[in-house]
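Example protein as discussed:

>
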Amino acid sequence: MGRFILGILVGVVLVCGGAFIYFTSGMAPVAATAQPMPFERLLAKMALHNKLRSDAPKTVPIKPATGNLLAGAHVYVQDCAFCHGTPQAEGSVEGAGMFPHAPQLFTRRGMVTDDPPGFTFWKVKNGIRLTGMPSFEKALSDQQIWQVSMLLHEADKLPPSVAAALAPAPAPVPATPAAKPAPKHR
């Protein structure tokens, strides 16, 4: 029995030592363009889903009224569309360059309408470690986070006024440089 326990201890030390060498030697893929480590996506998704099930709010303190959806659209365009896109435009190249890529929340694949609004609230408020998704806890009020969460929950059935509010602002037209005055001849 003693040899068996010794064998397990040696195995654990070897695995831990191998992991330590792997991470401290620079062999671990840390670039956003690198392939994920074995089980990285599975473990990260599992941890996030379990955290959401235990910590996300279960009740929503606001209704999906047009006023709340419009307020959520304003916050979304200001703070979220850069990475996550709008119904009319995809997100930025920077959002696509993240690992994992920032989901395009108004596409069928990225839509979170099936998620409980509390899940989206938790993600926006707390951020998601190692994904590029920041915490907005200090930037937005809980009311604003709920409005964005409700907007995304209702994304597949928005009133026309709210859908129009999600249109990105037109890009500014670059000013033409003023013509320099001709030099005066003396």
